Amino acid sequence: MGTQQSTTRHHPIFLGHWLFLSPPLSPKTRFIASLQNLKSKIDMTQLKTLPTYDPSLFEGAAEGYAQYRTKYPSVVFDKLAEIFNLNGQGRLLDLGTGPGLISIPLRTRFEEVVAIDPDPGMIAEAKRQAAAVGANNITWLEQGAELIDPSLGKFKLTTIGRAFHWMERELVLERLYELLTDDGGLALLQTGDNPWESNLPWKQAAVGVVKKWLGEERRTGQRGQGTRKPVDPPHEVVIANSAFARQENYEVLFEKSWTVDSYLGYLYTTAFSLKIFYGDNAPAFETDLREALLAVEPSGHFTEELKATILVAWKH
């Protein structure tokens, strides 16, 4: 009687990009492996769809943001109404809403507004601001713009004010496209008051004081340890490479007045000069800032001509 040889089959198992030959797996081992594989797929999905959000980006700034940040002039909202034929019907989606600087004043042009921000402090302040003016047609959602999905419904217009550069822009545009009505579009709003790009002597003096205390590089996030990266490519290029059909820029001129105190309040709401960045040095920073501003303008009152921009992208 011949000797019977046992044959062991080896099953191929893929791990990442590598192929291994392994002995047969027990049911328990196969179950654990399937769980690990599922977790890996979930992790990869999250990596592809979720940005890295820094919750300290505007830490402690919500109340001051509502008080001191440059408001969008009414002519900006009038221009949006003209461009999109707003008539009190339809729905508005406001991404990166902050304390509601767009969603609250623009609510009267729509039946319903959905306003989204990942910062719980901003959402809480927005609700307070809305209650103060009786704005009751706004739904506030604490989440990232990257997480929007069809469950939100359809929108005539989506606005993003001074926030698109913080987002995963390509992903937001991809998801947003499906949420817009056929005649809808996106409007990116800016108020043009960035002191780092200004040639006004008093603004340059203010930036000089910020640099004295925080260093030459423009700070961003991580409680003052992060540095600002250039917005590259520009928003226009990102939109041109998306599914949106066309885009156009509009400009609106307006005047803005400041005092020493209001400009200090403004600086404390910016991602590059939050009050927490200065710690115990905040009083000394404030003294330096006051001296620098008053050296340029002894009255302590400043006026500037600003150019608000509206970058509009249409779905079709």
- The assigned CATH architecture is 3-Layer(aba) Sandwich
Order of helices and strands: EEHHHEHEHEEHEHHEHHE
Contiguous helical run count: 10
CATH topology grouping: Rossmann fold
Strand order of the largest sheet: 5-4-3-6-7-9-8
**Which ranges are low-confidence, i.e. pLDDT below 50, for 5 or more consecutive residues?**
1-23, 31-50
Estimated share of beta-strand residues: 15-25%
Structural class: alpha/beta
Number of distinct beta strands: 9
Mean pLDDT: 86
**What is the CA–CA distance across the termini?**
81 Å
Query: How many individual domains?
Result: 1
Coarse morphology: globular
| Helical fraction | 25-40%
Identify the CATH homologous superfamily: Vaccinia Virus protein VP39
**If you compute it from the alpha carbons, what radius of gyration comes out, rounded to the nearest whole angstrom?**
26 Å
The top level CATH class name = Alpha Beta
* Biggest beta sheet summary: 7 strands, mixed
Domain Methyltransferase: 93-184
Keywords: Methyltransferase, Transferase
Protein name: SAM-dependent methyltransferase
GO molecular function, one term: methyltransferase activity
